[in-house]
Amino acid sequence: MRRSWRSTASPFLTGVGLLAVWEAASRLGAVSPFLLPAPSAVLAELVRQAPLLLPHLGATLLSGLGGFLVGVFLGVGLALVLDAFPRLRAALYPFLVISQTIPIIFLYPLFLIWFGYGLTSKLMVVVLVCFFPVIVSLLDGLASVDPELLDLFASMRAGWWQTFWLVRFPAALPSLFSGLTVSATYSIMGAVIGEWLGAPRGLGVYMLRAYKTFSTARVFAAILVVVVASLVVVYLVKLVSRLAMPWRARRETVTGPSRNAGDRTHMRSVP
After folding, report:
1. Which of 144, 155, 222, 271 maximizes the CB count within 10 A of its CB?
2. What is the Cα–Cα distance from 238 to 223, expressed in whole angstroms?
3. How do residues 49-68 score in pLDDT, each as one tens digit?
4. Domain 36-244, what fold?
5. Domain ABC transmembrane type-1, which positions (predicted)?
């Protein structure tokens, strides 16, 4: 309990200290409020702009969460297929890596031509940024199962499904949720990038309009909303991970955050 309190209090106090320095620097004239408005001014602007920001936030959440779910579904499905067929994995994996070397801003004009300025183009951006962390993390998790556990189940004449469901998949869950956490962080950011490049509404559109009017306080207010929305999505993924891996949550409660290697020793009891 004491370790948990310290791990929470340390970043909170650091954040409060940085905000205090920022506020003081702005109020004392060390930096121009036009270039770097004080946190209190950003918060006041956020309150004033709330009625206008809410519809944009709704559009961003719709594309961010929708693309995240589609990306997770495709990533998990393709990872399971590639794990079941090693030759197919050897043939396709290099192309998956190459696909991530193409900047999204180069692909988005094509999405606009193919799908227009609607929701589909933004969904495609979010799917692309969320898809890769999920498939790589799950493939690595499935490939890093303790060989002694696999030998044990082989000696017990366990079938492919029993070995997968009772050993390999539980052992891969920590890696999978690490990838899901990264994807959750990228989901809102991907939606904002898509809106910035071309969309009728969303936080990216709001930020673009604020930037064109040189309203730095409104840009910071939109950034704050993006950060909070991303943290909420990450928190939901963490909550699901605690429900899916109760043994890990109990271990962290007693000994603090665990390493993935320790999770690989977990397996379900054989019925």
Report:
1. 222
2. 22
3. 899 999 999 999 999 999 99
4. MetI-like fold (1.10.3720)
5. 57-237
